[in-house]
């Protein structure tokens, strides 16, 4: 349940990773990378607060850092998707990876634990490292490159 909850929260924030006009970034007097970094940190805080709010209910996710691990990794995948295929399609990566990890649970091999990091138990070092690398990689790609620019025909549709 924690994986699906984190997935839904993160994918709902994916469209916010790009603005309505790609030309605004080229005309800005200040660099955008600090704003993009703050945006991702704020998105992580929103998801984390919502996941941690369950600790005071009877239906809490235990341990709490498991939700934070999944949220960080999935948000990294969304940020990586926004930087490569655009914010409108950024949710494809985390949904596809989570679907594959759910349908084909990993073996006991290290590669299996890495590929199914979302479904691994809280004590899995491979899952924590994979989620951390995805979070850092997605954060770096999105902050430095920004969202992928859309074709002019796509920009007019939103």
What are its keywords?
single chain; 158 residues; mainly alpha; 8 helices; 0% strand; globular
What features would you describe in this structure?
- This protein is an all-alpha fold and 158 residues long.
- It has 8 helices and no strands.
- It has helices spanning 2-13, 23-27, 33-52, 64-84, 92-103, 110-115, 125-145, 152-155.
- Helix 1 (2-13) packs antiparallel against helix 3 (33-52) and helix 3 runs antiparallel to helix 4 (64-84).
- It is globular.
- 37% of the residues are buried.
- The model has no long low-confidence stretch (mean pLDDT 86).
Percentage of residues in DSSP E strands: under 5%
SSE pattern: HHHHHHHH
Proportion of residues in helical segments: 55-70%
Radius of gyration: 16 Å
The residue-averaged pLDDT reads 86
What does the main sheet amount to?
A: none
The class by helix and strand makeup works out as mainly alpha
Distance between the termini: 32 Å
Dominant shape = globular
How many strands? 0
Count of separate DSSP helical elements: 8
Identify low-pLDDT runs. none
């Amino acid at each position: 349940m924690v994986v699906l909850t984190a997935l839904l929260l993160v994918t709902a924030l994916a469209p916010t990773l790009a603005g309505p006009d790609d030309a605004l970034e080229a005309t800005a007097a200040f660099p955008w990378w600090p704003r993009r970094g703050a945006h991702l940190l704020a998105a992580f805080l929103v998801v984390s607060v919502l996941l941690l709010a369950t600790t005071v209910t009877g239906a809490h996710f235990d341990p709490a850092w498991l939700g934070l691990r999944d949220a960080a990794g999935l948000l990294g995948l969304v940020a990586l998707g926004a930087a490569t295929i655009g914010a409108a399609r950024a949710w494809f990566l985390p949904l596809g990876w989570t679907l594959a990890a759910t349908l084909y649970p990993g073996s006991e091999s290290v590669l299996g634990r890495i590929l199914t990091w979302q479904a691994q138990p809280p004590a899995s070092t491979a899952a924590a490292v994979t989620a951390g690398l995805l979070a850092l990689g997605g954060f770096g790609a999105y902050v430095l490159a920004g969202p992928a620019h859309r074709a002019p025909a796509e920009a007019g549709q939103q």
